[in-house]
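User: what does the whole thing look like in 3D?
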Amino acid sequence: NAGVTQTPKFRILKIGQSMTLQCAQDMNHNYMYWYRQDPGMGLKLIYYSVGAGITDKGEVPNGYNVSRSTTEDFPLRLELAAPSQTSVYFCASSLTRLGTDTQYFGPGTRLTVL
Amino acid sequence: TQLLEQSPQFLSIQEGENLTVYCNSSSVFSSLQWYRQEPGEGPVLLVTVVTGGEVKKLKRLTFQFGDARKDSSLHITAAQPGDTGLYLCAAYDYKLSFGAGTTVTVRA
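Assistant: Here's the predicted 3D structure for the full assembly of 222 residues, as structure tokens:
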């Protein structure tokens, strides 16, 4: 199993550009998540999904959109990139939403907006 | 939103020394998790604790959940350079909330 995969690994955007961060998992997990990680701030939840066709906002959803058309894929769309969106983005998945369950993380996408 | 406070923020020690990092909150948790994140990688789960007073050991790592289930600690005995990384605690509300982490550097 590849686990959770993310592409690209690195990206530089200009202000106002758009892009899609790709995330896929091969563990047949219903639950998928997008986080951003800023230095000294921990991980903040952007959006999550409880299954194909169902998504919901997390703590910091502004400036982002998601879709979940299949169990495997959960892309994150940035519209009109801003310098405040410079961060490292992690996708994760889990079998359940229980606090005792493991979240499996991808390797991350480092995004810089100039 | 529960706030998880981790201390210290940074810790640099020599190989062979012991270290302890802390995770505290004013909220009571039903469970708490510890993750380790290496540079350029995503976090990886180390342990989940669920019972107040619980102690779990993972080789040289000892995890303790406070009796009141509001705090937790991670103790590493005889640290090695391979223990270098960012240690994150996380607790579940309607979502998994993470502390800001403790960056541990073990010098050879």
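In plain terms: Chain B is about 0% helix and 55% strand. The first strand of chain B starts at residue 5 and ends at 7.
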